[in-house]
Amino acid sequence: MNLYKNHPGYETLCNHFDAIGTALGLLEENTASQPSFTVIDGELYQIPSFSVSSVCCSLESISFCVSCGHMSDAYTLTRKVRDDLLQHIFVLRAIKKADETRTTKIEFATGQNMDEELFCRIVDDALREMITCDKTDAECAVDAWIKNDLKNPANSKMRRNYFGASRYVDYLRKDDLVGECFSKFFYGEIQKLQRMFDNYVHANGASFILSNLPQAMYDRFAQHCEAISRSLIIIASIYISCMTLISPSILMATDFIDALDMGLQPTDGSQYWIMPGIQEFMDQYFPSISPELKKYLRANNSYGMKIE
């Protein structure tokens, strides 16, 4: 029963959802076109990139719950969106961080002429390093997750130490690449969201149970729509900001590749342009988080992506 589907608050929420879904979908498309891999027990595995697709499905479920006035359910699913996106950031960062450490150990013979023999030796050294090196505890936990072994009782310590929203937050705060951004712009907000989500998920008061009853929602429906929208804007902003620092190339607009595909000379500097949909999201929502956020990402993304 979509009791609230024609409510102005629901319409505003749907507009925010459309903007969030569009931005996340663009990043997912670029992520899928730039697959990442890791070696586990001597075998090559592709790092899953379907977390964002799952999140977009959750957005549809949240929208339905809100339209029915089932607000506690909507908050619970919003918490799931937070968990899924934070997990995706953690998985990618743990693997890329380990790869960066190993890369420093490989001799690339700087200044020498690159011939076939040298190239093959470099590739062979890199693969051997990936297969035989000792892995960090975080990377081992991610390996177990990729192989669907994390659920096994033998891996309970990995699950306890590295998986779960509080563990993702701790990891990201301490990370040398995203930690400053996360702590400066988002930590306070994520703590507020945690307290709010816990109230609804654990029913910390009779009012939080009443929030799932449509007939009890009318006077506060717009307020709930605003709170859920704001929560998802913050969560999506965390994801976009962290991905800008971890994998800045996934922000890239298609102009550069499109020109190459058509046999044309790309416009100078077009490899640094970001997708218009991502720029629009940043323009619309980042100022409400901090006027300095876009400036920070522009100055600190390693590819020099042109964030306006």
3D architecture notes:
- It is a single chain.
- The chain has helices at 8-33, 51-68, 71-103, 116-132, 137-146, 156-162, 165-174, 179-201, 206-210, 221-246, 255-261, 276-289, 293-300; strands at 37-40, 43-46.
- The chain is an all-alpha fold and 308 residues long.
- Helix 1 (8-33) runs antiparallel to helix 2, helix 3 packs parallel to helix 10 and helix 7 (165-174) runs antiparallel to helix 8.
- It starts with 7 loop residues before the first helix and ends in an 8-residue tail after the last helix.
- The model is unreliable at 103-111 (pLDDT under 50).
List keywords for this structure.
globular, 3% strand, mainly alpha, 308 residues, two-stranded antiparallel ribbon, 66% helix
TL;DR of this structure?
With 308 residues, this protein is an all-alpha fold. The protein contains 13 helices and two strands, in the order H-E-E-H-H-H-H-H-H-H-H-H-H-H-H.
Overall geometric form: globular
Helix coverage percent of residues?
55-70%
* Total of helices: 13
Strand content: under 5%
Characterize the largest beta sheet: strand count, sense, and whether it forms a barrel: 2 strands, antiparallel
Side-by-side strand order of the widest sheet? 1-2
Radius of gyration: 22 Å
**First CA to last CA: what distance?**
43 Å
Task: Enumerate the spans where pLDDT stays under 50 for 5 or more consecutive residues.
Answer: 103-111
State the order of secondary-structure elements, H for helix, E for strand: HEEHHHHHHHHHHHH
Report the average pLDDT across residues: 88
Helix and strand content put the structural class at mainly alpha
The beta-strand count equals: 2
